Amino acid sequence: MGMSASQARFLCLTARKNNVEFEGQQINQQRMTLSDQSANYYSELCNMSVPTPPSIDDYTKVSYTFDDGALTNTITSMIAKGNGDYSISYIQQWQDDYSIVAASSSIISQSINIVGDTEYKIGSTTLRKLGDMDGYNILNDPYLSTLSEEQLADLMEEEEYYQVMLNETVNNNPASDNEWYVRYVKDSTTGSYKPYFYQASAVENEGNYTDGFATSNINCYTLGSTTRTKEVLSAPGTVEKDSTGRYISITLYGQDSEGNIDKNSAVNYTLVTNTATDEEAYNDAMNQYNYEQYKYDQRIQDINSKIEVVQQQDKSLELELKQLDTEESAISTELESVKKVISKNVDSSFKTFNA
Question: Of 198, 203, 264, 326, which is most buried with the most CB atoms under 10 A?
Fold first, then answer.
């Protein structure tokens, strides 16, 4: 190879080597970017909060109750006052079997009787004003016709009490003068008669009738059983615990006429431990956990997929870099050979000129 050809080849190889080195730098830069991306993904994985399933204990409430005759008492607070004394609040609950309760209504009809008065019926039974029998045909009443004069007088007194109960329960005013209608229905099981009440203002409202029949249900009430509650606040007393710290009994004290604690009136009650779980709230929390766990798993899969893509891209770039390294090594070897040829040509030229 002549001098000119050798120098041209040397310049070509040098340019190619520089280009290979530049391509290698570009690939290294891309791999660095991929490395940063991968590090960010791993950092996100490490910083993700793993959803925690709800504990049933968080939705389970412990309460204490004690019985006092027909009363069931549920403790709402026990505040230590020092020297072993406590301020105890509780809710009393009992079943009142003589209360005003809602009942199913029936269609009421409106008509004019033979003396020109408006009367109201349910079926063939005429409604009567509560506590009033003036002008009422007792003989046509299946219930009243069976009562003696003394029993009828007792019934009128009883109906006065019914009126007070009705106005207290329905109108929140026992002294109200609101009037009521009543009818007595025989209980097929017990054989006794049970009263059913209808507020007079609703029964007598003309707007409730079309063609002589009520177009809307008029509220009906009767005697029945209902749960009553009463709250007792800050009763003085003491408490006893077992070795586990669970309350097992309380002692309640009365008060004298001056409001001082009377420990001679102490009454001890055994406490019953009750646990109640709010299943609905727990199920809602579990559903929320399942949803959060699903999102967490989906995000984990998404990040892992992205990391896998980055790793594949990095492997591809690594392969390209190895190919460039191989090429750069071959170019370097050939450059060394060309350098030797050029060096020989130079030595030969100097010898020719020195001859």
Answer: 198
Residue corresponding to tokens 């209808």: 198
* Number of Cβ atoms within 10 Å of the Cβ of 293: 14
Q: Which of these, 265, 201, 280, 266, lies nearest to 238 by C-alpha position?
A: 266
pLDDT tens string 246-285: 899 999 998 777 777 887 889 999 999 998 898 999 999 9
Q: Average per-residue pLDDT in the chain?
A: 88
**Structure token pair of residue 313:** 């891209």
> How far is the C-alpha of 31 from the C-alpha of 25, rounded, in Å?
10
Question: Phi first, then psi: what are they for 242, rounded to 5°?
Answer: -95, -170
Confidence of residue 106 (pLDDT cuts 50, 70, 90): confident
Q: How far is CA 27 from CA 14, 36, 91, 144, 310, in A?
A: 20, 14, 78, 108, 14
How far apart (Å, rounded) are the C-alpha atoms in residues 287 and 106?
45
pLDDT in tens, 282-298: 999 999 999 999 999 99
Per-residue confidence band for 313, with pLDDT thresholds at 50, 70 and 90: very high
Pairwise pLDDT comparison (256 vs 220), residue with the higher score: 220
Residue 324 has pLDDT above 60, yes or no: yes
- Least confident piece of the model among 23-37, 120-134, 327-341: 327-341
Instruction: Give strand pairing partners of 183.
Output: 196
Report the alpha-carbon angle 83-85-89, nearest 5. Answer: 155
Separation of alpha carbons 260 and 254, rounded Å: 8
